[in-house]
Amino acid sequence: MATVSNLIDGRVGVVSVSPETTVRDAAGLMNERRIGAVLVMDGEHLVGIFSERDVLRRVVAEGVDPATTPVGKVMTSEVVYCQPGATLDEVKSIFKRRRVRHLPVMEPGGKVLGVVSIGDVNAHDLDDSQAELTYLREYLFS
To answer: What does pTM read for this prediction?
Structure first.
């Protein structure tokens, strides 16, 4: 069974911002990278995650100025994460139970290795389904 480490293998770096980064700059980075969340890091320590949901709930809905508000004031500070050995079924369960779409991947010592999204898991499942369908077609028609 595939694990989270299979999904993040080969990725270079983690997209992150500091708590002092403005919401506008963080949103610009998210748009530039075409991602739905960035990790908020204080040096090597994960202190939060800033997602599209945070923008809607804590910035837009509250009328907060994105040009002057630091991400540290509007981020999600209670970060749900997983370890690299977690299976994709375990991760799907976390996504569903905790109602999140992005999970930082951390070693037991706290080192951040990457981020896995619900889109990553869905893409993996689709690839597996397509491979299985191809195999079954070859089996039936050869």
So the answer is: 0.84
- For the chain, the distance separating the N- and C-terminal CA atoms, rounded to the nearest angstrom, is 28
Whether the CB-CB separation of 49 and 79 falls below 8 Å is answered with: yes
* Residue 25 CB-density burial (10 A; 0-12 exposed, 13-18 middle, 19+ buried): middle
Alpha-carbon distance of 71 to 89, in angstroms, equals 31
Q: CB–CB of 39/14 below 8 Å?
A: yes
CB burial readout 90-121, b (16+ within 10 A) else e = ebeebbeeeebebbbbbeeeeebbbbbbbebb
State the greatest distance between any 2 C-alpha atoms of the chain, in Å, as a whole number.
Answer: 64
The CA angle 56-97-13, to the nearest 5 degrees, is 65
What's the pLDDT at 6? 84
Backbone angles phi, psi at 105, to 5 degrees: -105, 120
pLDDT confidence of residue 125: 64
